[in-house]
Specification:
Strand order of the largest sheet: 1-2-4-3-5-16-6-15
Structural class: alpha/beta
Largest sheet: 8 strands, mixed
Strand content: 15-25%
CATH topology of the largest domain: Aminopeptidase
Radius of gyration: 24 Å
CATH class of the largest domain: Alpha Beta
Helix content: 25-40%
Number of domains: 2
Distance between the termini: 18 Å
CATH superfamily of the largest domain: Zn peptidases
CATH architecture of the largest domain: 3-Layer(aba) Sandwich
Order of helices and strands: HHEEEHEHEEEEEHEEEHEEHEHEH
Length: about 400
């Protein structure tokens, strides 16, 4: 199928430069002031009218709407009563608190900060899509209004999506799409899955306390090191026997601290980790189950426990029609060979919160150079992408907007 809205070759170098500028100036969640300003300036240069979110970072920009009223030209409400509503294209704009260790001209200039998850690529792809769709709208060839959504704080549990939704970014939206960089997929391809494509992710903090003392007399103390170690080992094992194994409920520890001297049993210990779950129903039970298991083990070893369980995000559950739309869009641009099936990951993504309100789907955007033998994984300081992925993301989004609009008509 031949579709309009191809990316002008002259625009691609500018977008690559834009991505590299973001990469050099990463900003953490809810601090993305420079990033927001850069996106806003480029959209305004294209004659569009972006609006910064009430949180002060992030923005939305509607294309194909009445600029004076903000209503969609020829479109209706999100429930479809008067028309198809807007198609939202979402990008996350924040970076991670890890150092960039790559030796490239566009390496991060901010110590301890890096775009190590590909959000700079997501942002550039949605920005480029907006520029292409704006030209189509001016030519009267955009069949459905589109909302660009640049969301802050995806990496901050429970995710900036919640604040964005509260500020009204889904008003008038009837479908939402997104991509996420995947270093396991070659650039030029996408991965798709109907149903859950990510997992739930919560954060867990445990503080243990009890009487310490001399290692010569452990019977007069609460052996805090042993208590912490048993919690680290036994709690995941207990959960594995209390939840259907197909739910994939798992705790992975990232921190265990206790004591400072070889001959002193400490009074305190602390553990931190994440709770991940493949199944939505099991995720709703997870907090109670984790609390009960920790209390059991801590009590057995005489430790008092204070548990902080931070509810994060549910799984991203891709809706069938939205997946079909992404598949048809990618096939129209690059052929059947450009789409592959993908598995459900244990990673969390706050895009899931949008899908609690409107149907939508997330695709995995290939960023691995074709033929490459080394894989730069996400959330690592050496993560990088094949920048051809920017063009692919724009092709995918523009085709989806055109196909979805045609089907709505």
């Amino acid at each position: 199928m031949s579709l309009p809205g191809t990316l002008p070759e002259a625009l691609l170098p500018e977008l690559i430069d834009f991505r590299r500028d973001l990469h050099m100036h990463p900003e953490l969640g809810n601090q993305e002031l420079r990033t927001t300003a850069a996106i806003k300036e480029r959209l305004e240069q294209a004659g569009l009218h972006p609006q910064v979110l009430a949180t002060g970072t992030g923005l939305i920009c509607d294309i194909g709407t009445d600029a004076a009223t903000g209503t969609a030209a020829g479109a209706g409400t999100a429930d479809g009563a008067d028309g198809p509503g807007l198609l939202a294209l979402r990008a996350d704009i924040d970076a991670l608190p890890i150092p960039d260790i790559k030796t490239v001209p566009y390496a991060s200039t901010v110590p301890g900060r890096a775009h190590a998850c590909g959000h700079d690529v997501h942002t550039t792809a949605v920005l480029g899509t907006g520029l292409v769709l704006a030209d189509l709208a001016r030519e009267g060839r955009l069949p459905r209004p589109v909302r660009l959504l640049f969301q802050p704080a995806e990496e901050v549990l429970p995710g900036g999506a919640s604040d964005a939704i509260e500020s009204g970014v889904l008003e008038g939206v009837s479908r939402i799409l997104a991509v996420h960089c995947d270093p396991r997929v070659d650039a030029g391809r996408i991965g798709l899955r109907t149903g859950a494509i990510t997992s739930a992710c919560d954060r867990l903090e445990i503080d243990l306390e009890g009487p310490g003392g001399h290692t010569a007399r452990p019977h007069l103390t609460t052996d805090m090191v042993t208590a912490a170690a048993r919690i680290a080992i036994d709690v995941p094992a207990l959960l594995a026997r209390r939840v259907d194994s197909r739910a994939g409920l798992a705790i992975t520890w990232g921190r265990l601290e206790s004591g400072h001297a070889a001959n002193v049993i400490p009074q305190r210990a602390g553990l931190s980790g994440t709770v991940r779950c493949l199944d939505l129903d099991a995720w709703h039970q997870a907090a109670d189950l984790v609390h009960a298991a920790i209390d059991e083990v801590a009590t057995l070893y005489g430790a008092k426990s204070q548990i902080t369980y931070v509810r994060g995000v549910p799984p991203v559950v891709n809706e069938t029609t939205s997946v079909e739309l992404l598949q048809d869009a990618m096939t129209a641009r690059r052929g059947l060979h450009s789409v592959e099936n993908t598995e459900q990951s244990l990673g969390g993504e706050d895009f899931s919160w949008y899908l609690e309100h409107v149907p939508g789907a997330m695709a995995r955007l290939g960023v691995r150079p074709p033929g490459a033998h080394h894989q730069y994984d996400l959330h690592r300081g050496d993560f990088d992408v094949d920048e051809e992925a920017i063009r692919v993301g724009i092709e995918l989004f523009t085709a989806a907007a055109l196909l979805d609009g045609a089907r709505a008509d």
